[in-house]
Each structure stands twice: as C-alpha cells, then as structure tokens.
Amino acid sequence: MSGIKARLNAISAVINYKPAHAPLNFxxxxxxxxxxxxxxxxxxxxxxxxxxxxxxxxxxxxxxQKLDPTIADVVANAMKDWAIEKGATHFTHVFYPLTGQTAxxxxxxxxxxxxxxxxxxxxxxxxxxxxxxASSFPSGGLRSTFEARGYTAWDxxxxxxxxENPNGTFxxxxxxxxxxxxxxxxxxxPLLRASQTLNKQAKRVLKLFGTKTTLxxxxxxxxxxEYFLIDRNFVFSRPDLLIAGRTLFGAKPAKGQxxxxxxxxxxxxxxLSFMMEVENQLFxxxxxxxxxxxxxxxSQFEIAPIYEQSNLxxxxxQLVMTTMRSVAKRxxxxxxxxxxxxxxxxxxxxxxxxxxxxxxxxxxxxxGETPHKxxxxxxxxxxxxxxxxxxxxLLRATVATPSNDHRLGANEAPPAIxxxxxxxxxxxxxxxxxxxxxxxxxxxxxxxxxxDTLPPxxxxxxxxxxxxxxxxxxxxxEFRAVGSSQSIAGPQVALNSMMSEALDYIATELEKAKAxxxxxxxxxxxxxxxxxxxxxxxxxxxxxxSEAWHKEAAKRGLPNLKTTPEALPVLTSxxxxxxxxxxxxxxxxxxxxxxxxxxxxxxxxLLTEANLMVxxxxxxxxxxAMRYQGELASTCTALKGIGHDFKMTTLEDVTAKLRSLQExxxxxxxxxxxxxxxxxxxxxxxxxxVLPGMADVRSWADALEAVVADDLWALPSYQEMLFIR
Length: 725
Ligand code: ADP
Ligand code: MG
Known about the structure:
Shape: globular
Structural class: alpha+beta
Bound molecules: adenosine-5'-diphosphate, magnesium ion
C-alpha cells in the first residue's frame, strides 16, 4: 500500500468512525459493580472457601507467611468452580520472563473421563506449579538445553483473574518462573525476594523508634504510563513501526509540539472511546486506573492508576500495557509503547512513584506531625539519600534499554546522571543536620532531630522540579527515568535492595549506640550527619537538563553512564553483586545471566533496526526519490527542448542527496558485515559505530522527504501520523 492510500484509509477511518459496541452504560451497570468482578478476590475467597482455609491463605497474603500446601486442593477447586461459572474453559499460569513481556500457556479444564465424556479438572498441584516448555525464553546460560524446563510457581499475593475474549474466557494465575535449580528466570521472583529483605531491615529501624505494626513493611508503586495512539492504517505501510515499534525515518513536521496546545487538551472522540473501554476492562480486573489525559506530544496520552503494593502494581502495569495494545486495534488504532516512536517529538516514559510503608503506618516517607515522627521520617529519607548515592549506577542500569537510550537526556527526560531532588526546605533541614551538633546542643537556627518539628514541606505539584530523575514529592519519590515499555519490576528490585542496605546500615549504627547507652535522638543526629557528609553530593534541586549541571555533576563525581552498553556491566560489578548476594535477591549467576540477556536484547534490537533501515532505504525511499529525479530530468529536457535556459537546481539537489543516501546505505551495510568477540563488545560496536551510521542514512532520507513530490513519497509522514486521529 502506498502512503497516499494509507492516508486516505486513515482519514476515512477517522471520519467514518462509529463505536463498534453499544456504549458502556454506567447508569445501568455501576462502575462499583464492575470493579474486580473478574478477580478471585478476597471477597470471593471468603465466600467460597472454608473458614480455616481462608484464614490460612489470608495469613500468607497479608503477613507473608509460608503457604500451607495442604490447602491447595481446596483453593484450586473453589477457583475452578468460580471460573467455570463465569464461563472459563481454560486456565493459564501467567509469568513475566526477562523479555519484559507477559507469557501464558493455556490448558483446558476438560479431561476425557474414559467413558466417552469429559470432566472439568483442576487440582492443587496444577494451581501451585506448572511446567511450561520454557526453552525458548532467554535464560542467559542459567539453563542448559538438556534441562530446558523451567517451572512456574503460584504467587498467592497477586490474585487470579479472568480474561475475556469474544470467543471465550480463561483463568489467569500469576506465577513466578524459575529453573529447576531454583534460579529466577523472571521479573517477579527477585521482586518478591527484595520485598522480603526490605521488610526485615525496615522493621529493625521501626523497632528502635518503638513504632509497632502487625503488618509487613512493603513498597508501593504508582506508575504513570505514557503512550502514543496512531491510526492503524499508517502502521501497515510503515515497516519500521510494524517491526521496530518506532519510526526509523521521517522528516520533522511543520507543526510539532511547540504550540503546547495538546497537553491536557480535549481528548479526541475515538481516543476517548478507546480509553473508556480500556478502563472498563481494567476495572473488571481490579486495576485501579484513575487518571487519563493528553500528554505533551501530539497523539500522546497518559494513564495512571492509584498506587498499590509493588508486586501487584507490577502485574497490573503489565495488564495495562497488554489491554491497551489489544483494545487499540479494535478502535482501528495502534498503541505505541516505544520510548521514542518519533524523533524530534517527546518520547514516552513511565514515572514510577515509589514509597515504603503499610496500611497501618502510611508512607514512611511522609514527614508526620510530631518531632518523633519527623525523626523517623528523616531516617527513612536519609536512607534513600545513601541508597541513591551508593547505588546510582545500579538504578541507572535498571532503565538501560536500547529504546530508552533515545529518550534519556534528550531534554524531555532526565539525563543518565542520577541525582535526588529534595526541595529547598528539606534540603535546608538536612544541611542543618550536617552542620548541627551531634550531642543535641542546640545552636541558634539549627534544627535538632527529635526535638524540633520540621517546617511544613510543600506538596504542591506546581512547585515540583520536573527535570530530576529522582524527586521527593511530599510523601514518596518519583523515579522518572523508567521507559514506557519496560516492566517496572527491575527498578523496584533495585530500590528495595538499595533501601535495605541503607536501613541495615542505619539500624546497625543505632543499635550499637543504644547498647552504649546513647539516647536515640543523639544517635539519630550522629548517623544522619554522617550520611549527609558522605552522600549529600547526590542532592540537586536545580535544572537537570542544563549543561551547567553536567559539569557540576562531573565535579561531584556522579557517574554519567550515557548508553546501555556502558550501563549494563554495572549489574555484575562488585558492589552490586555484594549488595544482591548479601540480601539474597540475586545470586552472582543470576546477575551474569541478566547482564548477558539484556545485552543480547540490545544487540538484537539494533541489528534488526539497522537491517530494516537498509531494506527500507533501498526498496522504499530510494525508488521514490529516483522517480522524482526522473520526472525532474524529463521536465528539464522538455524545457531545454523549447529553448529555456536555466539552472537545474532542484534536479541537482535531488541528485546530490540521492548519491549521499546511497553512499550512507552502503557504508551502513559494510558496518553490519562484522562480528565481535563478545556480546558486550558487539553492543559497544553497535552503539559506537552502527548507530551513527544509521543516523547518517536517516539524515539523507529525511532531507529527501522534504523535497520529493508528496504523491511519490510512499511512507506516511509525521504530519499525517501525528495529526490525523
Ligand atoms: P503527577 O502527574 O502530578 O505526578 P499523577 O496523579 O499522574 O501525578 O500520578 C501520581 C501517581 O503517584 C499515582 O499513581 C498515585 O497513586 C501515586 N502515588 C500517590 N501516593 C503514593 C505513595 N505514597 N506511594 C506510591 N505512589 C503514590
Ligand atoms: Mg501524571
């Protein structure tokens, strides 16, 4: 299909758009009835399980106690009955392999009974453990092929749910995915491990403050998901969007986002219909989506849920992504989750709002009202300061993907330099602590921990620094470097582990002081002062996008790992291996496998894109430009034939650009004819040599797009993709 045809189809799709279904009727069906209706929730379990079984299960869910395997059969039976009553025919263990995607393998409930009929079967064993043929999932050397099986293990803390399809319904059971030797092959297992260790260390600190709670301390996540929606017709004639999820070519449109007329603007009708259906489906699955709005770039939007416990928030974010992808198609659109689908236009991220606490304590990053509560808050905040300063490169590595490389530091997202925004007041408090006397001897104007109350800290969103990678926002931190297509598990595994180390350090110092008879307030003052002296270089309240900050950060010794090949080796660096092995989150082998897998993914992505680029340049762009060149040449000949004397500037211009395009494509092809000694060497090569080669090809193709006759150009333009909706 030519670009022109795609354009006409897209225009007709917009003009003739009619909702495919009867409108969602929230007058007859209350959203409160819809919410969670497809979840095997606490309410359903309470209704359907014997009291003792329910109690035991609830202990595992709420208190993190070990699952009693003897109850599995009863739970499985109740789950099966519930699912079948609601129309399910199959069940699947859902797991989250290291590709960052969601994986599932369906099995029917029905089994033949040997008498020519069939019965529904679902045992405790089938609930607890599955054995998907896992040999095609990346294991980074953790599994040799002769023992290629992995197994999935039921995650009781994330409820089972039903997914509806026009042709049937199936039961989904969230699971962890491991090798037979117990190594994590997924994103969920380490998150569960890191949450456990966080609870342990946080509890030690709380105990010193005499703060009691019956619940574990957990981490919370509220991911703000950005995405693009474009008409599906365009994608069919853009192999780059189809294969790579981003445009490899495309001249800058006459209008981009500079008018700033899109942000929070009126949402187009078809898009709004899409959003409403996405929300309706997510409500059924118990995903508490809350906010929808237009984003900065044309055709860019955001969906944000109410924050939940990390593990659940992570599973739910995966559901948000898969639901948006599938619903968009039904509305004639494609949902692009790529971090940078369009060059020169803002990309998409996923701000990860992060806090720790529990239902009884609230957020431990919330200042509180008494000097005592303030002191406890300052300790948790200081732990975050130490954690980010000590492990900034680790956090950077968790967002290192080929697609996110296009976004970080591009004046729309924070740079690769990690720093913390605390706001002026809180920074001032910590500065005072740094200067203040350890014995609590109060100097004038200097705050004494545990005696004075904090000044009221502003929580006004208008006030916030939008350029910081890691910003304090009143009762939580907002990590802004996460990519839109990424699983949020990785960053949270790192955050929980880093926080564990810092809380462990603080608890140990305070326990030592206590044993020596030092008063808590004095001990806290001493440890906070030490943390500030060692780690305050990480605090920066200014403009993270500025050149001045890059210089200043270098002076402060803050690392700046600009690209994925620079960032990923951090995963196997000594401090990181020590951190994760000490707290039982990853073994060294697991870390090595992850580094290897992520590097491989980087290489595969870049190679695919580069090959696609060569193909598109040769088969789509070059022919279009050459046809135009031919037209110009015949016009020139004709004009000369009737005696016109003129300079053939356009023809010469097109000819020169065509030649440059051809040269740059040949150069890129030569660059691709190459092999490297290791995965890492290959990644570096692709990053340092092939990416610039690709940029060169693109610059000539885009220059041609700006001069070649529009009716000859086969690729839909930025203009039409971004503004026809
Ligand atoms: P903004 O765009 O102004 O940053 P949004 O309302 O779009 O804010 O998103 C804020 C996100 O932070 C929401 O998902 C919200 O539920 C979440 N959030 C609020 N409080 C906490 C908290 N204590 N811990 C983690 N996430 C939180
Ligand atoms: Mg938002």
